[in-house]
Amino acid sequence: MFAVIKTGGKQYKVAENDVIDVEKLDAEEGATVAFDAVLAVGDRVGAPLVEGASVSAEVVSQFRAEKVIIFKKRRRQNYRRKGGHRQHLTRVRITGIAGA
Fold this sequence. Notes:
63% strand; structural constituent of ribosome; mainly beta; 100 residues; elongated; single chain; four-stranded antiparallel β-sheet; bL21-like; Large ribosomal subunit protein bL21
């Protein structure tokens, strides 16, 4: 059984016991979170959401992703700018899919 959930502006296909990294959630490690924006469960597809379906997950850790380097250059103009970005992420383990 799988489900498609939406969180942080992105969609994830998940099954039970999967571990995924999502945009930062305001939850402590070990806390349980529920994703109510379920777009599909098995062969049921919502329009846009599946009624009464939810996915529960346990927060494993809060961390930051690898640094992404942003480098801007304008040729022949002596213009160079270097910056970086590290996204805050939350690692969650899917514990259950309800409303199947």
